[in-house]
Design brief:
Layout lengths: L5 H53 L3 H11 L4 E6 L5 E3 L11 H6 L4 H5 L4 E6 L6 E9 L3 E8 H52 L14 H36 L3 E6 L4 E4 L1 H13 L15 H11 L3 E7 L2 E12 L2 E11 L1 H36 L6 H32 L8 E4 H11 L1 H6 L2 E9 L3 E4 L1 H17 L5 E9 L3 E8 L35 H11 L3 E7 L3 E9 L3
Parallel strand pairs: 12-14
Antiparallel strand pairs: 1-2, 1-5, 3-4, 4-5, 6-7, 6-10, 8-9, 9-10, 11-13, 14-15, 15-17, 16-17
Helix pairs in contact: 1-2, 1-5, 5-6, 9-10, 10-14, 13-14
Length: about 575
């Protein structure tokens, strides 16, 4: 509304101030002019009375004095001459004043001082016989006489009324001019302020290039200069904060570790993608739904936050959830000496733990694989040295066992070296074009004897659209040999192993399926790990034991060919390995 604006307040303030001053001034002027007119009228009447008294005393001819008195007096005034010997004379007046007799002048108490003390008189009084008020002046003459001049107050009141009209007119004009001046002045003052207000709104909307025009060089102009300078500085600092925020956001987003910034209430303020994975897992376990309204830190992290805030020290915890291991370091954040929250850095240690376990398992498995042949080599060699074997055939048998175990140790060492080179990316492929039909037939034929000995039905199914493939034949043969050998050895008598070979314009695939003992589902993700063995559920038919490195080597060979190898298995129903290689010209 108008009176709530600065223009209205300033204009109303100026108008009220001027009106108050004019009101006081009008009252004072009216009082002053009223007294002034009364005093002027009394002075004039006193001068007339003095003149009449001189003429009465100096002129012997009273008629001449009376005529002269009629000429010099104010037409609105009335003159009464009271002689000491009882004579009495009154003048004529255009005003219908009540004519007073000698008895009244002699009997009026307020007039006695003129007769008895010879003092001049100035007084306002009510005349007898009516409600008229008049100004009365009197001066003494010889022989206890007096000259009285009186005049109705209506004349003074009329003059006062005319003066009041003039003063009120002047006050009204002053108020109108003041109102115009107040609006002009307030508009001049508030116009830059209004522009500053609009500029401030623009700043709140992020428009930092807004400038306030500098219209004057007074305090308001200096305020506009300061406002523009503030806008430039604010833009500079906002840009600096935005750059720092973007830089910090980029750093946090690119971190491999999870980062969570928290306040004292457990609200998550900033998170990155790795931290979101942990938060989602925690919410899932606690049957909570993660959304913008519900961003509270879930248990058990909330309890850790409370400990960090209360104890004001760093906390390190390990969290195991959904099969993954997380290590979290939570540090308090300070606002001077007050703990305002905490920042948590979270690292997914699952892979590290897995690699650590693999390293330990690798050492244990290698030790286990080497211990048996070394023990056998040591035992049988001691038997030969100590002549435990007496006959030549017995010594030859012991030497044959020592030879086979040494071959087994050499095979294990070679496979470990091959696997290490492959995992280090140092595998070299001797690729060439290979005709698929004879290549597959040769590999299957190699296992015919083993299949017959194991009483396993080995079948080959060919669906070859493309007749050749660009591969390293020795390496791929090593892979297929491992898959088919495993399938035969883990399939019982009267079992079946089906090798399906397919090729088309883009892909070559081999499926090796058996109906053997199968692999437990909890072991399937680890079949391509080093030293993995499924002996607990897939019993070999032969006496020869594997090293547990074959499938791991096979996977590295397939990866080197940009192919894939997968496995599907059901316990007591069978296992299927599928090898797929792209056809590269």
């Amino acid at each position: 509304m108008f009176w709530r604006s600065v223009v209205g307040k300033l204009a109303i303030t100026i108008l009220l101030l001027v009106s108050f001053v004019l009101f006081i001034l009008t009252i004072l002027l009216l009082e002053f002019f009223e007294n002034f007119h009364v005093q002027q009228a009394e002075n004039e009447m006193m001068q007339t009375a003095n003149k009449v008294s001189l003429m009465i005393e100096q002129y012997d001819d009273r008629e001449l004095a009376y005529r002269t008195t009629e000429l010099i007096k104010d037409p609105a005034s009335h003159i009464a001459v009271v002689y000491g010997n009882g004579d009495f004379w009154t003048s004529h007046s255009i005003d219908n004043l009540h004519e007073l007799g000698e008895q009244w002048f002699r009997s009026e108490d307020s007039l006695n001082a003129v007769f008895t003390k010879g003092e001049n008189l100035k007084e306002q009084m009510r005349l007898p016989g009516g409600n008229d008020r008049a100004m009365m002046v009197g001066t003494p003459i010889q022989n206890n006489g007096a000259v009285f001049v009186y005049q109705s107050l209506d004349v003074v009141n009329k003059t006062k009324s005319d003066t009041t009209k003039i003063i009120l007119l002047a006050a009204g004009i002053a108020i109108v001019l003041t109102t115009i001046f107040a609006f002009f002045l307030s508009t001049r003052i508030t116009s830059p302020l209004i522009k500053m207000r609009e500029a401030a709104f623009d700043l709140t909307r992020g428009e930092f290039n807004t400038k306030v025009p500098i219209l004057t060089h007074d305090e308001i102009g200096e305020l506009a200069i300061a406002f523009n300078r503030m806008g430039r500085q604010l833009k500079f600092h906002i840009n600096a904060l935005r750059q720092e925020k973007e830089q910090l956001s980029s750093i946090v987003s690119s971190m491999a570790d999870g980062v969570i910034t928290l306040n004292r209430n457990g609200d998550m303020l900033v998170t990155n993608s790795p931290a979101d994975q942990l938060i989602e897992s925690l919410y899932y376990e606690n049957n909570l739904r993660l959304n913008d309204e519900h961003n509270k830190l879930p248990d058990p992290l909330n309890g850790i936050l409370e400990d960090v805030i209360q104890e004001e020290k760093e906390a390190i915890n390990e969290i195991n959830i959904q099969g993954r291991t997380w290590v979290m370091i939570m540090t308090p954040l300070y606002d001077q000496s007050y703990v305002r929250g905490a920042v948590a850095v979270i690292r997914d240690m699952t892979e590290d733990r897995r690699l650590d376990k693999l390293r330990k398992d690798f050492i244990a498995n290698v030790s286990h694989e080497l211990r048996t042949p070394i023990s056998m080599l040591q035992g049988y060699s001691e038997a030969i040295v100590d002549d435990v074997a007496e006959s030549r055939e017995e010594k030859r048998e012991l030497a044959q066992i020592i030879y086979e175990e040494s071959l087994r140790m050499g095979r294990l060492v070679n496979e470990l070296l091959d696997l290490a080179r492959m995992e280090a990316g140092q595998i070299s492929l001797n690729v060439e074009h290979v005709e698929l039909d004879p290549y597959v037939e040769r590999i299957i034929k190699k296992f015919s004897g083993l299949a017959n000995d194991s009483k396993v039905d080995l079948q080959l199914i060919k669906k070859l659209s493309a007749q050749s493939i660009y591969i390293d034949p020795d390496r791929i043969e090593q892979v297929l040999t491992n898959l088919i050998d495993n399938a035969i050895r883990h399939t019982g008598e009267e079992g079946k192993v089906i090798v399906t070979v397919e090729s088309n314009d883009s892909e070559f695939s081999v499926s090796v399926a058996d109906n053997g003992s199968g692999i437990p589902k909890e072991d399937i993700p680890f079949v391509f790990e080093r030293f993995y063995k499924a002996d607990k559920s897939r019993v070999r038919n032969g006496k020869k034991k594997g090293t547990g490195l074959g499938l791991s080597i096979a996977k590295n060979i397939v990866d080197a060919h940009n192919g894939t190898i997968t496995v599907n298995s059901i316990v007591n129903e069978g296992t299927t390995f599928v090898l797929k290689l792209p056809l590269n010209d």
